[in-house]
Amino acid sequence: MSPMPSNEIISGIFGSISLTAWITVLVPQLHANYQSGSAEGLSMAFLFIWLLGDMANFVGALFTRLAPTAIGLAGYFCIADLILICQCFYYKTANSRPQSVSSTGVDVISSEETPLLSTTQQSGLAQRSKMNPWVSNTLSLLAVGVVGCIAWLAAFEMGFLDSTETDTQDPEQGSDKMLETVGIILGYGSAVCYLCARIPQIIKNYRERSCEGLAILFFLLSLTGNVTYFISLLAYSQEKNYLLNALPWFLGSLGTVGEDMLVFAQFRKYSGNKETSAQA
């Protein structure tokens, strides 16, 4: 068995880290919504445009015959997006219902009897949440990197990463060529969607002067996934044809980094808000 080229090793490791980051990317936001019982911090336009981009990415990956992992991950994105959107609709519907009159009396009694206890507990939780977020987020990102490296190493040791002959397509097959062209167009479409998706969220944060309800780890994992995916693609090959075919995926991954950095700046600027810092 011939040794694996160094560029494939680098591409594989960073690709595995990216895969780990993308598999877990929505978990922090789903958890934040569950804890707060609300999804008001998220822009629905952001989610729908992101879903549209993931759907275009999935179909484009099928048509261009990308690696099975890329196709599977794109399909997973669509399912995960739908889960998050359904959760948001659930909380918006539940929170729009008027509260029952019978529950108000119980609330008043409990609030009169236990104000000091609840205030003390809340202040203690708030103190802990102020001290822990960035440490826990850093540890989470380190864990993603470690798990990604271990997963690649395990796959390598089990022989799953042996280089195989790539299937060259006959240029005479017009239907395959047409599907590939449509796939590349869809790839560009998904890149445009990814670039536009964060804009409604950034505008929402700016208008409300708050990032309340957002999990910053959600955007940190997105940034990690995009950067490592870009490195993985670039390290794999520097041939002209490869770079041209992969261009929409380059744009879709690296193009959103600047927008993620802008969201981080908003977290920093609006961190004086109690709820924002708690979610961060």
Automatic annotation (TrEMBL):
It comes from the Eukaryota. Pfam families: PQ-loop. GO terms for cellular component: lytic vacuole membrane. The keyword Methyltransferase does not apply. It is a multi-pass membrane protein. One of its GO terms (molecular function) is basic amino acid transmembrane transporter activity. It is found in: Membrane. The keyword GTP-binding does not apply. Keywords: Membrane, Transmembrane, Transmembrane helix. GO terms for biological process: vacuolar transmembrane transport. Its main location: membrane. The chain crosses the membrane at residues 12-30, 42-63, 69-91, 138-161, 181-201, 213-236, 242-265. It catalyses: L-histidine(out) + L-arginine(in) = L-histidine(in) + L-arginine(out). Belongs to the laat-1 family. This is PQ loop repeat-domain-containing protein. The lineage of its organism: Eukaryota, Fungi, Dikarya, Ascomycota, Pezizomycotina.
